[in-house]
Amino acid sequence: MIHPALRLLRCPVCAAPLDGPAGPAGPSGLRCGGGHAFDVERSGYLNLRTGQARRVTGDTAEMVQARVDFLGRGHYAPLTARLARLASLAMTSPGGVGPAGAGEVDPELVLEIGAGTAHHLSAVVDARPRALGLAVDVSKPALRRAARAHARVGAVAFDVARPWPLPDRSVDVLLDVFAPRNLPEMRRLLRPGGVLLLVTPGDDHLVELRGPLGLVGIHPGKRARLAEDLAGRFTRLSSETLTRTLRLGVDELVELALMGPTGHHTGAAELRRRLEAVLPAGCTAMEVTASFVIDRAQGAAEMAVD
């Protein structure tokens, strides 16, 4: 069965609507009126990547498992809860999820870019009981998990650097947590009254691990550049910093490093070796700063969407 959230998508080639399960592509795929067909993988996610997409594979299976394990321990629960609360404040036009295939009801839609396993997205969807969620990623291991993370969340792969396969003004809440941004497309998709929730690392995020584990630091001036990028497209409604001190064991520290960019070039065994080299003898844990900056924004009133 095709997830109802996937029916909201458009063809990435010609932007035409995609048919449901009764379409020419059959129950295992979707096809537009122009004949472009796309597979719904056995695990349930829709692949809308075309031959023009960049060759980006996303997180590996090891990185995804580390994310599942770390987030499952609740270390980032305050961030997840805050995102769900902020998402509940979006005041868009009344919507609701209608029966599959009904077509009469314009559903609320929560879209997360770089959603990974849809951990945060699932909580945000719970905060809006009439909403569907779409988890966007390029990692196959992550998409397989996202497709079964929540009954109202569908999963899709597409290239975020290209035009996004959704209609204008179709998204109520747009979520981006440490993920790549395409601000023109984000603005195009956001409904009047909808909100963009943009999470970036604080200056001291994981500062204790940067030297020992080779984690990437925060570029100077990143906040100023973000403000410049948002200007003219979005109006910032609020900005807040959420900071927590986490006491983590070695296994958790390895998971935390693996679930970020470091995991693309450094494996668990090497991360563990580096930790053991810097931890005092007999010490099995250390304190780490987790710092998140959450920007809540709406589309700028003067910004027209064609």
Automatic annotation (TrEMBL):
<dbReference type="GO" id="GO:0032259">
    <property type="term" value="P:methylation"/>
</dbReference>
<keyword id="KW-0489">Methyltransferase</keyword>
<dbReference type="Pfam" id="PF13649">
    <property type="entry name" value="Methyltransf_25"/>
</dbReference>
<dbReference type="InterPro" id="IPR029063">
    <property type="entry name" value="SAM-dependent_MTases_sf"/>
</dbReference>
<dbReference type="Pfam" id="PF21302">
    <property type="entry name" value="Zn_ribbon_RlmA"/>
</dbReference>
<dbReference type="GO" id="GO:0046872">
    <property type="term" value="F:metal ion binding"/>
</dbReference>
<feature type="binding site">
    <location>
        <position position="76"/>
    </location>
    <ligand>
        <name>S-adenosyl-L-methionine</name>
    </ligand>
</feature>
<keyword id="KW-0479">Metal-binding</keyword>
<keyword id="KW-0862">Zinc</keyword>
<protein>
    <submittedName>
        <fullName>Methyltransferase type 12</fullName>
    </submittedName>
</protein>
<dbReference type="GO" id="GO:0008168">
    <property type="term" value="F:methyltransferase activity"/>
</dbReference>
<keyword id="KW-0808">Transferase</keyword>
<dbReference type="InterPro" id="IPR016718">
    <property type="entry name" value="rRNA_m1G-MeTrfase_A_prd"/>
</dbReference>
<dbReference type="InterPro" id="IPR041698">
    <property type="entry name" value="Methyltransf_25"/>
</dbReference>
<feature type="binding site">
    <location>
        <position position="32"/>
    </location>
    <ligand>
        <name>Zn(2+)</name>
    </ligand>
</feature>
<feature type="domain" description="Methyltransferase">
    <location>
        <begin position="110"/>
        <end position="194"/>
    </location>
</feature>
<feature type="domain" description="23S rRNA (guanine(745)-N(1))-methyltransferase N-terminal">
    <location>
        <begin position="10"/>
        <end position="48"/>
    </location>
</feature>
<feature type="binding site">
    <location>
        <position position="205"/>
    </location>
    <ligand>
        <name>S-adenosyl-L-methionine</name>
    </ligand>
</feature>
<keyword id="KW-0949">S-adenosyl-L-methionine</keyword>
<feature type="binding site">
    <location>
        <position position="36"/>
    </location>
    <ligand>
        <name>Zn(2+)</name>
    </ligand>
</feature>
<dbReference type="InterPro" id="IPR048647">
    <property type="entry name" value="RlmA_N"/>
</dbReference>
